[in-house]
Amino acid sequence: MRSLRLLVPSIPLLTAVVLAATLTPVTAAADDPPVLGSPAHAQPTGAGWGTAHPRHLYNGGDPSGEVAHLVWKRWGRHATTGRGVTWLLRPEGGYYARPGRIVLRADRLGACADGSVAYTRLRFRVAHRPGGPVGSHWRRWAGDGDIC
Q1: pTM for the complete prediction?
Q2: Are 74 and 27 members of one domain?
Q3: Which residue range forms the structural domain that includes residue 121?
């Protein structure tokens, strides 16, 4: 009975030590911000993928796949929104001489194949002409929106 009285007060201390040892690696990993997709997305010429709150994105293809001067809000939450500029297609073909506004929304926090914690889906809304308002319809980036 005496040994039980000695054991009972030590249970909270033992529990605290076990929890501290168990949670330390998780806490350290949680300090790293998520990244935007995988660095392998849009390779070999893509840019900005696999980094946290990139200021510049590029698919490596035509000019409308490039976004510059990005500023992000709420990075690290379940969804984040970035605003920047991109090259806009003209209705008659080609591109306008000046870039227009674009809004990006990254969500679906998860893990890419390389194991990085990342926003795995990207959608966008874009202006139809330079200086014009951003459209109301969200579109999937690169067709399916998957950026891993």
Answers
A1: 0.77
A2: no
A3: 35-140
